[in-house]
Design goal:
Elements (H helix, E strand, L loop, with lengths): L9 E4 L8 E7 L4 E4 L4 E6 L10 E6 L1 E3 L3 E5 L4 E3 L1 E5 L5 E5 L7
Antiparallel strand pairs: 1-2, 1-7, 2-3, 3-6, 4-5, 7-8, 9-10
């Protein structure tokens, strides 16, 4: 099955502590999880390394979110959309908005 979500797509988080957050997909993992910018923030402890002159710190990083917990976001209508596929006359397969029929 083709993947409906791709890198640099604008999505909205539908469940979890980041519900309602709109962000861009930074990375799509092969295990079905995504990294969305600014969503599902976690704390990561960085150990100090005095030999390489690196100070220890606590960073905030994005955690993974399952692909079923996000939906594509339409900026014009400010709501989530469902995605379908359409094959053009020249044989290319494109993603389309199911409600409007416009390509994503």
């Amino acid at each position: 099955m083709a993947n409906k979500l791709k890198k640099n797509d604008q999505v909205i988080v539908t469940t979890g502590k980041s519900k309602g957050h709109v962000g861009v997909i930074d990375r799509v993992r092969t295990d079905g999880y995504l990294i969305v910018s600014g969503a599902n923030m976690r704390k990561k402890c960085i150990k100090a390394d005095p030999q390489n002159n690196i100070a220890g710190e606590i960073k905030s990083v994005e955690g993974k979110i399952h692909a079923s917990d996000v939906a594509l976001y339409d900026v014009e209508n400010k709501k989530r959309i469902k995605v379908g596929f359409k094959i053009n006359e020249d044989g290319t397969k494109v993603r389309v908005n199911k409600q409007t029929g416009k390509p994503v």
